Amino acid sequence: MSEKLYIFDTTLRDGEQVPGCQLNTVEKIEVAKALEELGVDIIEAGFPISSPGDFKSVVEISKAVKNPTICALTRAVEKDIEVAADALKYAKKGRIHTGIGTSPYHIKYKLNSNEDEIVERAVAAVKFAKKFVEDVEFYAEDAGRSDNAYLARVVEAVIKAGATVINIPDTTGYCMPHEFGEKIKYLVDHVSNVDKAILSTHCHNDLGMATANTIAGVLNGARQVEVTINGIGERAGNTSLEEVVMTLRSRKHLGIDTEINSKKIFKTSRLVSSLMNMPVQPNKAIVGKNAFAHSSGIHQDGVLKHRENYEIIDPVEVGISESSIDLTARSGRAALKHRLQLLGYEFDTDELNKLYEEFLDLADKKKGVNDEDLKILVGSKHIGEERAIELKHLQVLCGQSAIPMATVTLDLKGEEFTSTESGNGPVDAAFKAVKKLIMHKIKLEEYVVQAITRGSDDLGKVHVQIECKGKIYYGFSGNTDIITASVEAFIDAINKIV
Ligand code: KIV
Ligand code: ZN
Predict the structure, then answer these.
(1) By percentage, how much of the chain surpasses pLDDT 70?
(2) Residue nearest ligand 1's atom 6 by CA
(3) What is the pTM of this model?
(4) How far is the CA of 265 from the centre of ligand 2 (A)?
(5) Which of 91, 200, 326, 432 could bridge 167 with an S-S bond, Cβ 3.0-4.6 Å?
(6) Residues 404 and 369 both lie in one domain
(7) Are residues 347 and 355 in contact, defined by beta-carbon separation less than 8 angstroms?
(8) Centroid of ligand 1 to alpha carbon of 127 (angstroms)
(9) Domain end position, chosen among 381, 403, 423
(10) pLDDT band at 19 (very low <50, low <70, confident <90, very high)
(11) Is residue 134 helix, strand or coil?
(12) What's the domain range around 194?
């Protein structure tokens, strides 16, 4: 049985402070419900004194959410605490989070005060908050740069005043993991009543060490972590929930775990990202688009042989259906074969080799080759099939002030023939040049071009219908060059007559 680590989610308070990420109350309720489903223990729903909107959100989230404790932030100011208590009146379990700066910077330059006075104000704030709720969390702002001995004095005093949770924020993201870990250990060793409260970490990511610091805190005795979805938050962000949760899940021997339903992580990440207009960076740990994507040939081969060769977490555990084998110009035959198998295609070695060459050709032109591209590649290349007519060469001249011209070389049963034609556009010119080289009398009945997916580098898909001696034949091709795709589709249809 693992020891429980409490997850205090501050996406809706510290995360929401990011410019451009503000949510309205309805959106906040949607996120709060998703956090509840995810299994967080505490939701910091806002800073009620800061605006009527924040006040209303805390009220509405308190009504909407049943299981997690709802927490409201305050300064060590009576009015803040009264307003927070009022906002929490509908919460099944409410917590007031009050606090004050304890670093020399904050004491002198922000609060224009001194150490003794800060202890008094901290104690007074906790005692005042206790009049409204049982559960009072105290934060020692800028604890990361606070003197450990002084911090221990403040912490001991506020626990004595009734604080149930003590938050040790690295407000400026200054600490290194060993320093933050030592800070928590110092408090565990030097605060005589530390067993009466839970120590909490609240790390910012200014030096990219928020998760490492948080884990160091946990290893040294913290049993609550303050985190946000996707690590969003002021400046470089807060500790990301998914990173902490999955670090502990991938180290069961530590015997510390959360009650997070990790399978909901990805869904929650995308909800927060879309509502907050905050894209998740592709290489973001756990939830980035590339977090479980393998693109180099060696890694793809290794993952296909045994997933754990290159993955420490099963993507299914975080709600991603499977690892993706991204097909790029660096992919090997094993990856191509695997993806084709998933699409239901089986090829022998010769066919696969031929297809692989064509795949590499396409991958050089496109950044990534997707399933649609592969289906077209397979469908239009007629692996292993003898073709009576093959396109050997195509050159077109077109543009705003040019007369469209096309030169086509076809392989007709082993012999090459070339012709050049003009037309009202490059496709018309190329079709005429093809027609000149073949014996059949054909009529183009239908010609459809479609862009398949997203970018301008994507494949164009062409369907043609031709008529020959009263019969209809269909042709199809896909190519990043739509003129080439058109001619290939045209030839595909002609081959069916032959
Ligand atoms: O970073 C910080 O110090 C905070 C406190 C208000 C808890 O967000
Ligand atoms: Zn913060």
Answers:
(1) 97
(2) 141
(3) 0.76
(4) 22
(5) 200
(6) no
(7) yes
(8) 20
(9) 381
(10) confident
(11) coil
(12) 3-275
